[in-house]
Amino acid sequence: MFKTKSKLSFLVAGLVFLLLTTFSMASAEVLLPEEPVQNIILLIGDGMGPSQVQLARYYSLYQLNQDLNMLKMAEIGATSLVATRSLDYLVTDSAAAGTALATGYKTNNGMISQTPDGSPLLTILEKAQALGKSTGLVSTTRLTHATPAVFASHIYDRDLENEIAVQMVESGTNVMLAGGRRHFIPQSVSGSKREDDRNLLSDAENLGFVVVQNAEELRSVNPQTVNNLLGLFTSSHMSYEIDRNPVEEPSVAEMTQKALDILSQNPEGFFLMVEGGRIDHACHANDAAATIHDTLAFDEAVGVALDFWQNHPNTLIIVTADHETGGLCITKGQVSDDGGLEYLKVTDLETIAQIKGSFEGPIYQGLETAQSLADIQTVIEEYTGIAITEEEATLVQEGKAWVPVYANQPANSIGRAIQDEIKISWGSGEHSAEPVPLFAVGPYASTFDGFIDNTEVNQVMSQAFQADY
Ligand SMILES: [Zn+2]
Questions:
Q1: Is 94 an active-site residue?
Q2: Whole-angstrom Cα distance, residue 465 to residue 344?
């Protein structure tokens, strides 16, 4: 589908393009630009399938009276659906799906930008570096988590985050803003997950990075004077948006803005990846409110990218996901004994709007001391405004431990307990093979069309940078 072209053929093609555009001004025909794109901003909503977008959109339309920026992109740009399978499974994880987006090659679940037999795969970030562009990674997960990792490291197991941290600090990536400090501080420091004495924050400073650790420090960074910025705002993942304290932790939109302010100083352009990483975690937990708020926070970052594009039109913006998580159903999962068939209404969104915290944040904390079904009912009502029945409280109790692990976790029992009230249900606590949406604006955006494979997203980016080797 995408051919490698020589510089000469680009010159010729460029001339033909000029002639064509000169003599076909009245034509509505879309011509692909032949000039390389200066900047690419790739925004990945981890776990964000079509239902996640639709649910957040309904919430935004009927609770906040505004449409999503992603949907504005759909109006002015291109839309596509993307299949996500990995090499070894029809259902992918973020490592394999991220590798496909970052490199254009499929690999096995769990692997970070290398083939199953261990060959490293060149990433779009590394191609941008070879072109003299600046590069950046922004995420709400740990910096060493799969999606940011696939752009700037190569390893056979995504869980080797201490090694990924070393590779990322040494990767030459100019701006890295995320959570995950615990993999960058020496083992002697409390909270460290390292098994050695390396202090990667000092190493980064020695390599010329300014290091920031909270929202205030990030806000005070002057993009005119800082070229290399490492911001690690939390020990592990950053907070769910619904729980986030803005004094401590910047929003993903703020991180995106700062990254753009710094990266756009390079006249050669840049590549920036922005991940809304905790949409996936909220969906693993079957937590509809946390899913909505993280999707909206991600969409705000999309808005920052669109604003940048207004003033820098030679920028390709792609918004997509690595996979869907949770088999999110925007409908009731089961008809209650007395309720009959009752579909989701606009007013049900008001119930969701009352929810004040994530299952894995304040609700878990509250449940830790719950002794009885009545205690469970009290905690759930305090944080969600929802009075659950004794039967539903039993579901939560049978979830047994309130330990936040992402698979087969009791959080899902809270999701089940309130699904009759919020009329949102889930098919799974795992990923699904649901195709994911893609929205694109800017040069080369019209290349996206129809039902594509995730590797093709990378092919378009490589073509746009004229680095499709
Ligand atoms: Zn996941």
A1: yes
A2: 45
